[in-house]
Amino acid sequence: MVEPLISARNIKKYFNVGKGKLKAVDGISFDIYPGETFGLVGESGCGKSTVGRTIIRLYEPTDGELIFDGKNIYELSHSEMREKRRDFQMIFQDPYASLNPRMTVEEIVGEPLEIHHIYKSYKERSNRVIQLLKLVGLNEEHALRFPHEFSGGQRQRIGIARALALNPKFIVCDEPISALDVSIQAQVVNLLKELQKKFGLTYLFIAHDLSMVRYISDRVGVMYLGQMMELAKSEELYINPIHPYTMALLSAIPIPDPDIQRGRKRIVLEGDVPSPINPKEGCRFVDRCSHAIPKCNEITPTFEEIKKDHFIACHRGKEFVK
Ligand SMILES: Nc1ncnc2c1ncn2[C@@H]1O[C@H](COP(=O)(O)OP(=O)(O)OP(=O)(O)O)[C@@H](O)[C@H]1O
Ligand SMILES: [Mg+2]
Questions:
Q1: Separation CA 136–CA 121 (nearest Å)
Q2: What pTM was estimated for this model as a whole?
């Protein structure tokens, strides 16, 4: 059996806000295996980015354990964490906002190398930067230019080159293609796939919608208001969704086959996403769920394996298994 590269156990991240505790992530557990792409989806504000940042300890967790390569990284001291940090990187959603406009590409991509004192001479570092630029489909001439001289897709390539600089094992890709033109999205996804193969990288791939992560991810987790609602292999989640929330998300995606599309029921999600500030007991999805029973208002369903490799948090889950 393969050991997970990452085991997140009961991760919580609360923010103190004026009116109380904003429970952005409230007890999430999942594993990510070496070399896999784990997709994380859910509506805006459900906590996807917070999960990504908390598992690489860019945010200090409120609670939980994050086992990486057999060690709980939440217990590491600052200096141990500094060393470990090289193994994790992040690629951001907005390639316009995430690159410092006053730095050249060479400085942006070379900065992590400088911080970690990887190379003795400027020449050595500069060579490594050029090598990284080539890896992502850019070249030497780009090194002395500034971010505003590049297109969105090229900027995202610069962000990827920077993320690769320290030979990480794990990369959080936080909606890396959402801000790009549709025609460019596939190129960036293909690049990420290629790099994954070449370097044996493991990804957490965050996206809004399920159709996007389906092809990229080996397994997918569906989040709602700080909690994981369902987790399964990509195809399984697509073909046999169990949780009413996943069903609703999927029903919003048009299927190219008109026969299937005609036979499918479109589930409209009623009501707004409730506030994550001081959430009440019970299932987070209850107010928008057409299958809710009284128990759903009182007891928070546990997240459990309902069939092999398929996890859900729903009191009525067993009835919905096909
Ligand atoms: N630094 C912070 N301080 C206070 N609240 C925060 C902070 N970061 C995130 N939040 C809140 O936590 C919740 C989850 O935010 P998060 O950015 O993780 O959602 P998301 O799923 O990534 O959304 P999107 O799809 O829009 O990127 C939101 O209610 C957000 O307002
Ligand atoms: Mg986000």
A1: 23
A2: 0.93
